[in-house]
Amino acid sequence: MTKATVTAFELITQSIHTLVGHWRPDLELLFIFWLIRNFKVVRKAMNVRKDAREYYIPSGPLRSRDWGELRGAIRELNAETVEGQGYLFIDCGGGGSRFDQHGRENRDDETSIALVCAYLDTVASIDGPLNADERDELKAVIDVLQAFIQVVSDNDATGLDTAVKDEKAATSSTPHTQRTLRNFVLGLNVLYPLEPRKVSSLVYMAFDGIYDSLRKNPSDEETDMRRLMLCEEFLPAVEGFFGAASGDASRFRFYAEKAYRAYEDEWEIGLRDYNDPDKTVHRTISHPRFWTWLPELHVCLIKSASTRASQVARFAPGDQPKADLILQWTRDGHFMLTTRGKVELPAVLVAELRKADLFARGWRGLLTQEHYEQLAESGRHTIVVKDEKGVDQTVPVLFWTDYRKACGNEFRSNPFAVKTGLTSVAAARIVSEMFTNGPRLPKREFQPDRKEGKGQRQAPRRSDERAPAARQGSQRRDDSNRGRGRDGRRHFSELLK
Questions:
Q1: Residue 481 CB-half CA count within 13 A
Q2: Where are the domains of the chain?
Q3: Are 396 and 419 in contact (CB under 8 A)?
């Protein structure tokens, strides 16, 4: 468990009346909220009022429209000023809050739950807000939940599955869809994408049952915790806590079944789109740059609103090979680029996508090498650049996750992300060219060239671009293979209608 140092430690002295989380809350966020709401000693350690409300906002940069109630109370909208008004951000806040790991430097795979537990560990070891009995009580709560917390933290940091792989326990008839606690949360968010409080109230019931089971049968084995994540394990725990014949247990069983069916339906929708040749294109690039250990890079471009379409492409039911790279367009102006397994997206590819997106959205200004390096950083929602008049402007960029395997503007936690100006063909071409011809890295600075005519723009000119005569020979060689990978095939982007 991540341990905070006392020298860098700062107690929460502001009375907290609102817990702030992100839309479509995930397993980690909901567990932290439950931990705070369920234990008086935790609330006291974090100075949270008993009647504190939950408030959900899109992840990423704070939006003024979400903070109308603070109009006139703060001069600048950021996590620090908002928290000074009695709000506490968990797993959100634009990277500027104490319990949000996104965008932190030297985070060492920290998660929000690890940051919260580090704070609680420190409070339990110092004289301050808690007396000796309360410190012992807090330690006991964390000890009971420690192995469970580690499983949740590992899932958030690395994508490691929360549950054991047990085909006998997979009561779903849908492939690759175990009925687990994590998938229960995902299914609820499919059912109630704009009702996070309904999602949280049902998931809290699962945590109540799990904690009761761990308290009666303590274990610090990770395997035991991951088995407890299976529905067939935590459902009896919920029934044992509330009473099998109670209305609460009946309500929980009803919504659990409903949520799992919704999550299974997402697979079926994704599979239908995957098998539709008008919505899915497969291409192979031989000897891809960056991922040189792969003899072939299998790429899938799919247009689907399913939250599981990319997962379908990774497992590739049918005759197609499993996709290593999936470019999914979910709706107008929203897409996600993801990888299979533990493979990370190359930083230069992300930087090129972000740069192209900025220009396609109509931004006009100057990007320096420093900006380009920021575009190649994971965890960033925005960068500060100068406009044509030399004035600093904070502009949103495509989000690249801290675990570096997903980039785009279609994240469940932010359904209101700014639309991209890129088309599916333009994004696909960038991906294809990056793995065949490589990046165009600037030495100093570059900016979009402008053509005459409304809305027309050339690709950014490289500052190290050679004179026409100097590159005449290479241009002829390039033209002969334009639109083709090293295997001689056309880029998949060229085949899109």
A1: 13
A2: 6-255, 336-495
A3: no
